[in-house]
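Thread amino acids onto this structure.
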């Protein structure tokens, strides 16, 4: 795709990890229930509590370490009100071998979310990536034909959406079907389009709706919110959604991934305009995978090589949030992993990192502080000015 680790962690500087030590003890695995019980009184300055005042859900992608490492789990629980499995609901993970299912990671996440009063963004049914080998091999060697592929997709959606029916707030039904070209459109060479046919997108949405009628169903993609100079991919996403709506397909929202890179141009104003245009279709909008990467010294420490990036990175994260806050139809803002230590970026973009809102030692970064300050302003408003004497004419 063209969307342009680990270290010793301390909870000491983790904003909002208030009371974590008391609940979690000094070692061992955090119990989801224990974490949940700890949140009778939440930190009013946490991202989730501030955002809640304007009805916005602040989220993060979750990987197993976030749940199994006490200091991380404390932050995941205290700061976020919606969680997305980074990988644990993808087809490759839940059905690695045909007919053999592994729901352990997904179930864990669902339990964690429940214990911590969090909603869940399900991710994702229909994507060209992270598919099980039996599927890609079968298609490649011709043992799975188009009809069989559609049957398998239908079964996958009904199985997974059915298992979590009533527990998922938003599902990313289809992910990354659009080309990066100008003009952009549905990619004819996408695995699903090529092998299952062009109507696979609408089929997937209809199946997901039948399987879990209460879930909000999203189309999710990158570079569709102010990122690309021509805005060609935004237009393609808009056209796709409009076409689906005209056919009566149950699509309820657009997920703007929001993977930014400080070396490229990006327009917060255009993001805001794009959100407004999606909303004009009657759709909800979500920022689903926000991060802003930059060049760093090495993948372990992730210190920006240019001091100015300490300003550019939080600026981009905060401006994404501000554009989001301007639109009531924008219902959730999710960061794609909250610490640089578990970000996907260093593994995918050589030399880059520093993309999230906590550093590799779980200390909140300026991006966190900027977002917190913006949320405070949104939630509480600016105080009225103190009275002063005014000069008499
Ligand atoms: O689980 C295996 C492990 O057993 C093995 O030892 C290890 C060796 O590399 O790989 C592990 O799998 C990795 C998996 O993440 C879980 O950590 C894969 O190699 C790695 O490719 C995979 O990356 C994920 C990526 O999607 C795949 O494209 C990232 O974690 C995940 O954050 C990322 O998320 C995507 C969204 O789903 C869609 N939008 C873009 C976003 C970023 O690429």
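Threaded sequence (393 positions):
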């Amino acid at each position: 795709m063209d969307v342009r680790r680990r270290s010793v962690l301390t909870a000491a500087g983790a904003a909002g990890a208030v009371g974590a030590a008391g609940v979690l003890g000094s070692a061992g695995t955090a119990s989801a229930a224990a974490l949940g019980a700890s949140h009778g009184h939440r930190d009013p300055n946490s991202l989730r509590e501030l955002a809640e005042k304007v009805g916005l859900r602040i989220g993060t992608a979750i990987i197993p370490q976030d749940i199994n490492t006490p200091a991380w789990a404390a932050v995941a629980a205290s700061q976020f009100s919606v969680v997305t499995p980074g990988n644990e609901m993808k087809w490759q993970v839940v059905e690695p071998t045909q007919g053999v299912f592994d729901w352990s990671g997904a179930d864990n996440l669902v339990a964690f979310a429940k214990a911590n009063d969090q909603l869940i963004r399900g991710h994702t049914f229909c994507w060209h990536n992270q598919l099980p080998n039996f599927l890609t091999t079968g298609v490649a060697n011709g043992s799975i034909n188009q009809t069989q592929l559609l049957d398998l997709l239908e079964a996958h959606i009904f199985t997974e959406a059915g298992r979590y029916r009533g527990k998922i707030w938003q599902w990313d039904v289809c992910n990354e079907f659009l080309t990066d070209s100008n003009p952009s459109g549905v990619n004819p060479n996408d695995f699903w389009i090529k092998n299952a046919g062009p109507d696979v997108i609408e089929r997937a949405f209809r199946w997901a709706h039948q399987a879990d009628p209460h879930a909000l169903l999203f189309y999710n993609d990158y570079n569709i919110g102010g990122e690309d100079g021509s805005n060609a991919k935004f237009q393609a996403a808009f056209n796709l959604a409009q076409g689906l709506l005209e056919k009566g397909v149950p699509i309820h929202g657009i997920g703007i991934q929001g993977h930014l890179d400080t070396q490229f141009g990006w327009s917060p104003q255009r993001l805001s305009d794009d959100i407004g245009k999606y909303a004009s279709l009657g759709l909800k909008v979500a920022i689903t995978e926000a991060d802003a990467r930059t060049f760093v010294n090495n993948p372990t420490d992730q210190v920006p090589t240019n001091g100015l990036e300490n300003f550019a990175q939080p600026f981009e994260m905060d401006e994404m949030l501000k554009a989001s806050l301007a639109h009531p139809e924008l219902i959730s803002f999710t960061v794609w992993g909250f610490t640089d230590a578990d970000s996907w970026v260093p593994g995918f973009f050589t030399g880059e990192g520093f993309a999230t809102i906590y550093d590799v030692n779980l200390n909140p970064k300026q991006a966190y502080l900027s977002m917190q300050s913006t949320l405070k302003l949104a939630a509480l408003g600016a105080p009225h000015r103190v009275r002063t004497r005014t000069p008499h004419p």
